[in-house]
Design brief:
The complex is a heterodimer of chains A (545) and B (316). Chain A has 545 residues and is α+β, with helices and mostly antiparallel strands. Helix content of chain A is 32%, strand content 21%. In chain A, the strands form 7 sheets. In chain A, strands 13, 14, 15, 18, 19, 20 and 21 form a 7-stranded mixed beta sheet that branches. Chain A has a 4-stranded mixed beta sheet with strand order 1-12-11-10, with helices on one face. The longest helix of chain A is centred in the N-terminal third of the chain and has 20 residues. The longest helix of chain B has 36 residues. In chain B, helix 7 packs antiparallel against helix 10 and helix 12 runs antiparallel to helix 13. Classes of the chains: A alpha+beta (545), B mainly alpha (316). Chains A and B meet through helix 1, strand 9, helix 7 and helix 14 of A and helix 2, helix 4, helix 5 and helix 6 of B.
């Protein structure tokens, strides 16, 4: 009976297969089509409102700013065909291409940029919420005042001189301004289109559906099935469309990592993020291209510098020196991530050299003997006989739990220090940190732009991201004067000095510079995984072989 | 009957109001805010956001505003999925969950009843053992394991074999997505599995019980055919306890498909139950609670009405 059931089941399945297959034909010539797993549903694809990698993957394909990033992550011409920077490095004049078009064929003008940028810093926008990333525009004269509700819209120094010229005046010389301009929040908005989108419950639907968005990028959106897929096709009105080779892009939203991995092996998707070491080994055996890239993220443990125990520099240093980062990466993380013996990520380049190479290592990894000495000294200074049990906050990601357990073990083994792990959602963690109600907290930091300042600024005592509550006048001063410094070499030296002071006092404990692994179907060529969120997936040069 | 329905509706309104109030009060104690996800938000921008969503107003003011909106059928805007209203999200996702749920429910009921019936009739035979195994697996193994296993063995392995066998690029059962009939088969079966096991077990017990009743014995002694005894006399009584189970089972299938939806990337409502709480999307949590309580109340009322048709002793 049992056997008969199985046989009949198989028979039914085969019959079904034959019936269904009669309706499909096998593929012919190579189609320039790629399928990528987005992982999640984008919250929105409105460039001014997006703030996460998932949404930016789509935005980067369908929009183009004045400047975009080349294969190496350096600024290159986008809608602006050229630009001039004034001698005092304060005024930028962007010359827009006359052939830059929206999907509907209308011209992209300097006003579209001006409107978009003002929209991003509007403190109380009428039909949408304030932009999260708006603070990236605070380098522009008058922008910060306007965003804080103190200044006027008219005083923001963005001037549309004519249709093809945009003038921007900055508060200070900002060598990384072009890098900033490649970000999503600086992308244009087609004001005429935007104003025509329906408003529901006081919120515009712009960016919520395929029909309610209009871009100017290399691809245009053709459909968006919520929580399922987004389809793009090549935008023929794009000024450089002759050099874009992909004809169709399918973004799928497979949230479950194992399912995505199975779908990749079955050929349903062409690119998949690898999260487990096991998966990488399995794919390497088959013929898949397994790549990894520096995500530009520093993983670190923030320490509350106002905590009665952690206010002691020697104790903080002991905790940092006693971690064995090399073993952690080799045995547990299992990829190309690098030990962080400084805070600024190796993706940061200044004048062609990475900042990390110039600044060098700031302390040594797994220095248990020094750590023990430091702990002893610290305890003496505090008048304690042993260190009370500490607590470490972490979010509920698998990788966070994995790493935190390793730290816990290393501290116990190397220093005899007990640490309790407290897992909670990130917003709860953030809340506790803001209220100074924590001791240790596992965090990640990625700079908003490619400059050491994007990392070191969190040690500025005025910065709200400084949740370690670290304060050093010297550091504050160095960071401050570096902003006005016009000599690039001197500026970098100041920043190196600042990092040295910080790493000598160890307000936070750097752990590793995160690399991510992914696998690509071998027929896909030139898929760029950049070091910044906006360029996480770049399809500009991609083609199918 | 009419009187019963009116009474029931009035009660359901009170239930929904209680759900709104309790959820609203509980949400006040939810730590964090809906705007902090992966990164700390600039304090000025956070302040602007709170003002925009009126989160800085006292809770009783927000409560009355919300109730006023609710009466007009307005569930508000999702705080996480910017520029989408809660109603539009439910409208889009619920039909998919319902579709999946109905498919799974039909499979569970038909296969479950059939297996239960057969195993009761052929007690201790192969079919009985088979049913027992299936129902044991269905009840004991959680959905995410069943889903993942089915996905691997049926969607990946079996489809791969068929693909190789026929020599085309066509895959019979896709691994993820919700685009056509082919996509629905494996998820529906996976979702049905748990309920199927439960129904089969229940049906078996109840059928065995019924078959040992005196009126069945007397029917047998009168010389009625076995099929007539089972279908005409025993089935009607044996099915009663199963029917009372169907209501709650149906609700749990359509509202509890989160795991299966996640594994097969089906754009249903399930994911929002979990993510909205995780991200602190207040309006979404409230909207879903109201909607869910509405569905549960409706289904329970319907089951009660159905019961009167099956069991005439029950009066409404």
């Amino acid at each position: 009976m049992k056997q008969r059931t199985y046989y009949s089941m198989m028979l039914i399945l085969l019959m079904l297969a034959v019936v269904l297959m009669s309706g499909c034909s096998s593929a012919g010539a190579i189609s320039q089509e790629i399928t990528i797993n987005l992982g999640d549903e984008p919250y929105t694809i409105d460039p001014q409102l997006v703030f996460d990698v998932t949404s930016m993957r789509v935005v980067n394909a369908i929009f183009e700013g004045l400047v975009r990033k080349d294969k190496n992550g350096q600024p290159m011409e986008g809608v602006a065909g050229s630009w001039e920077i004034s001698d005092d490095k304060l005024t930028y004049t962007f010359n827009l291409r006359s052939d830059a078009k929206w999907w509907d064929g209308t011209k992209v003008t300097s006003n579209h940029f001006k409107e978009a940028w003002l929209r991003a810093i509007d403190p109380q926008p009428e039909n949408h919420e304030p932009s999260y990333m708006g603070y990236l525009l605070f380098y522009i004269e008058g922008a910060e005042e306007y965003a804080y509700g103190e200044g006027n819209k008219e005083d923001v120094a963005i001037i549309a001189k004519d249709e093809e010229t945009l003038l921007v005046t900055l508060k200070n010389p900002t060598p990384y301004f072009l890098d900033l301009v490649s970000n999503s929040v600086f992308m244009p908005v087609n004001t005429e289109f935007y104003n025509n989108q329906p408003v529901e419950n006081g919120v515009t639907t712009y960016g919520a559906f395929a029909e309610t968005i209009m871009g100017n990028g290399p691809f245009k959106i053709t459909s968006w099935n919520t929580s399922q897929n987004i389809t793009l096709e090549k935008n023929r009105s794009y000024w450089n469309s002759n050099n874009i080779q992909l004809e169709k892009v399918n973004f799928k939203m497979i949230n479950d990592n194992i399912a995505a991995f199975t779908a990749f092996k079955a050929g349903e998707i062409d690119v998949v993020d690898i999260t487990q070491v096991m998966q990488k080994d399995e794919l390497k055996k088959s013929n898949y291209y397994v790549g990894s890239y520096d995500a530009g993220v520093t993983q670190y443990i923030s320490m509350n510098n106002e905590d009665p125990v952690l206010k002691n520099t020697n104790i903080r240093k002991a905790l940092a020196y006693s971690l064995d980062r090399k073993t952690l990466i080799q045995k547990i993380v299992g990829n190309k991530s690098q030990e962080a013996l400084g805070f600024v990520s190796p993706v940061v380049k200044v004048e062609g050299v990475t900042f990390r190479d110039r600044a060098g290592k700031m302390f040594s990894d797994n220095d248990v003997d020094t750590a023990k000495d430091l702990l002893e000294r610290g305890l003496n200074e505090l008048g304690l006989s042993s260190l009370p049990k500490l607590s470490l906050l972490l979010d509920d990601k698998e990788t966070s739990k994995r790493d935190a357990q390793a730290f816990q073990e290393m501290w116990r083994k190397n220093l005899g220090v007990e640490v309790e792990l407290l897992v909670m959602p990130f917003d709860v963690m953030a809340d506790r940190m803001m209220q100074k109600n924590y001791q240790l907290s596992l965090l990640m930091w990625s700079g908003d732009f490619n400059d050491p300042l994007a990392y070191l600024d969190i040690f500025n005592s005025y910065n709200f991201f400084n949740v370690a509550f670290y304060s050093n006048d010297k550091v504050d001063n160095l960071l401050e004067i570096s902003i006005y410094e016009k000599d690039e070499v001197k500026r970098i030296d100041m920043l190196i000095e600042a990092e040295k002071i910080v790493m000598d006092e160890m307000p936070i404990c750097p752990v590793y510079f995160l690399w991510l692994d992914y696998a690509v179907n071998p027929r896909v060529q030139n898929l760029i995984r950049g070091n910044s969120p906006i360029q996480d997936i770049d399809l500009y040069w991609t083609y199918i072989q | 009957m009419v009187c019963f329905i009116i009474k029931r509706l009035a009660f359901s309104l009170i239930t929904i109001w209680a759900v709104v109030t309790i959820t609203f009060v509980l949400l006040q104690f939810l730590p964090g805010d809906p705007f902090t996800n992966d990164k700390i938000v600039h304090p000025q921008i956070l302040e602007n956001l709170k003002e925009k969503y009126r989160l800085d107003a006292p809770w009783h003011e927000r409560y009355t505003t919300y109730l006023k909106g609710l009466i007009k059928g307005d569930l508000g805007i999702s705080m996480v999925y910017r520029n989408r209203s809660v109603t539009s999200i439910i409208k889009r996702t619920f039909p998919i969950s319902l579709n999946l749920g109905i498919r799974a429910f039909i499979i569970a009921v038909f296969v479950g009843l059939l297996l239960g019936l057969l195993s009761a009739l052929y007690k201790n035979k192969t079919i009985d053992h088979f049913t027992l195994t299936i129902s044991m697996i269905g009840v004991a193994v959680p959905g995410f394991i069943i889903g993942t296993l089915f996905q691997y063995f049926i969607c990946y392995k079996l489809s791969g074999i068929i693909q190789e066998f026929t020599g085309t690029t066509f895959r019979l059962f896709p691994i993820t997505g919700w685009e056509g009939f082919r996509h629905t088969i494996v998820p529906s079966v996976s979702l049905a599995f748990g309920a199927l096991g439960m129904i089969a077990r229940m049906m078996r017990e109840s059928m065995i019980n019924t078959l040992s009743q005196r009126y069945i014995v007397s029917a047998k002694s009168k010389g009625l055919k076995q099929s007539e005894i089972v279908l005409k006399h025993a089935l009607k009584n044996a099915i009663l306890p199963v029917i009372s189970l169907l209501g709650p089972l149906f609700t749990s299938i359509i509202l509890g498909s989160f795991v299966i939806e996640n594994i097969f990337s089906i754009p249903g409502m399930g994911q929002h139950f979990v993510t909205s709480i995780k991200t602190g999307d207040y309006t979404m949590v409230l909207g879903l609670s109201i909607f869910t309580s509405f569905v549960v109340v409706m289904i329970n009322t319907f089951t009660d009405i159905l019961y009167t048709f099956v069991d005439p002793r029950v009066r409404l």
